[in-house]
Amino acid sequence: MTADLAAHLVSRLLIDALVLAAPLLVTTLAIGIVVSILQVVTQIQDMSLTFVPKVLGATLVLLVCGSWMLKYLVGVATRLISSIPSLF
């Protein structure tokens, strides 16, 4: 295994991790911004007010995108495992 191949595998790993985490991260970020704006407007500073909507949003995203995320992860693992003989 060369350094170029290792760098390619690491970069591909980071891209795949970003693609898998993006739906959850974007959803919780958007919910956090909306709740923060509402807290500033209403001057309600309660920590549970930000936590509960984020958990509900993340749960909804996992219910909607969970099967796609699992299929994507299985595809990544299959590609990686099938490429092992050609790496050495």
Outline of the structure:
The chain is 91% helix and 0% strand. The chain has three helices and no strands. The relative contact order is 0.11.
Report on this structure:
With 88 residues, the protein is mainly α. It has one domain (3-87). It is 91% helix and 0% strand. The chain is built from three helices and no strands. α1 runs antiparallel to α2. The longest helix is centred in the N-terminal third of the chain and has 40 residues, at 3-42. The radius of gyration is 19 Å and the shape is elongated. The N and C termini lie close together (6 Å).
Q: Beta-sheet strand percentage? A: under 5%
Number of helices: 3
Q: Mean of residue pLDDT?
A: 91
| CA-atom Rg in angstroms | 19 Å
Number of strands: 0
Q: Could you tell me how far the N terminus lies from the C terminus, measured between alpha carbons in angstroms?
A: 6 Å
The overall number of domains is 1
Largest sheet: none
Tell the overall outline.
Answer: elongated
Uncertain parts: none
Structural class designation: mainly alpha
| H-E string | HHH
Specify the helix fraction band: over 70%
